[in-house]
Design brief:
Layout (H helix, E strand, L loop, with lengths): L2 E2 L16 H9 L6 H12 L9 H8 L3 H10 L5 H11 L13 H19 L4 H12 L3 E4 L5 H11 L6 E4 L6 H10 L4 E6 L5 H12 L3 E6 L12 E4 L12 H16 L4 H15 L5
Parallel strand pairs: 2-3, 2-4, 4-5, 5-6
Antiparallel strand pairs: 1-6
Length: 294
């Protein structure tokens, strides 16, 4: 589900994805002001939507990496008397069987299986294409288009900017932090930018949050691809598109955010009338230069 901070007039309001267990859980958390610890619990619950109704408070605490009292306070923050009441409610609104055990999978296979689940969840969210289509319209209309991604998210931003530059007339990659980044945003705004695309992945650098806050103050509409609707960047994003990362290996894996970036590219092309002509021109030039080995 996208977190849309503004109203999409073409659809009559904020759109909602398919009625899956994950989106029903997401709906339960909307409208509540959650602490960072509580957002972590909520994120863990969404990722394991099929299992959550069957977990004890201790098991949920272990899953989220928090204390058991934190789970109890989380349930109270949602308006329940305690975790047992929350779990009873979950069994009513999220009827699902426990996920199959990983069985004999080794740790590498388990990491792959977890990424497959992340991609399945992304596919569920994309059953409602309107948030991505709206993001495509916003990004296509911005000339220039700044694309932000620092540290772990730098490669996602670079990949998007590389392909977007083939169809968009002015893409500006912001993948190195430091004191110059605000200057580059100011320059983009002076040149006519109306939006900024951000890729935000854990661990979330404070500089990304500060930069998005600055971009908002500068008048830019912020579209963000993040690992969770509860990520720290959410409060500075006008339209947030979540795609979970895998955490089973020493370093996070980001197949779903990468694929969502490619989906955004498709939506961007749909709103750029000259996109196909630009691609054909590039292919012709590449062939004339012998750029690629056939």
């Amino acid at each position: 589900m996208s977190v849309d901070r503004s109203t999409d007039r073409s659809t009559g309001g904020t759109s909602r994805a398919t009625d899956s267990p994950a989106t029903r859980l997401q709906a339960l958390f909307e409208g509540h002001r959650l602490t960072p610890t509580q957002r972590r619990i909520a994120h863990s619950m969404v990722r394991r939507a099929a299992d959550v109704p069957f977990l004890s408070s201790v098991e949920l605490a272990e899953l989220a990496g928090v204390s058991q009292p934190s789970v109890t306070r989380f349930a109270v923050a949602l308006g329940f008397d305690g975790y047992p009441a929350l779990r009873k409610h979950l069994r009513e609104v999220v009827p699902a069987e426990p996920a199959a055990e990983a069985g004999s999978y080794n740790e590498y296979q388990q990491a792959v299986e977890a990424e497959i689940e992340n991609l399945k969840h992304l596919a569920e969210l994309l059953s409602d294409p309107r948030p991505v289509q709206r993001a495509g319209r916003i990004l296509a209309a911005s000339r220039p288009l700044p694309v932000l991604g620092l540290r772990a998210a730098a490669s996602q931003a670079y990949g998007f900017a590389y392909f977007a530059a083939k169809v968009h007339p002015d893409v500006r990659l912001l993948h190195e932090g430091g004191t110059m980044i605000h200057d580059r945003i100011d320059a983009a705004v002076r040149a006519g930018a109306t939006a900024l695309l951000c890729f935000a992945l854990p661990r979330h650098p404070r500089e990304v949050v500060d930069t998005l806050a600055y971009a908002k103050e500068a008048g830019l509409t912020v579209v963000t691809v993040a690992d969770s609707a509860f990520a720290p960047v959410a409060r500075h994003s006008d339209l947030l598109l979540p795609a979970a990362v895998g955490t089973g290996l020493a370093f996070d894996t980001a197949c779903a955010p990468m694929l969502l970036g490619r989906v955004l590219l498709e939506a961007l092309c749909d709103d750029l009338p000259q996109a196909q002509a630009r691609l054909e021109e590039f292919d012709a030039n590449a062939a004339a230069r012998g750029l690629f080995v056939e």
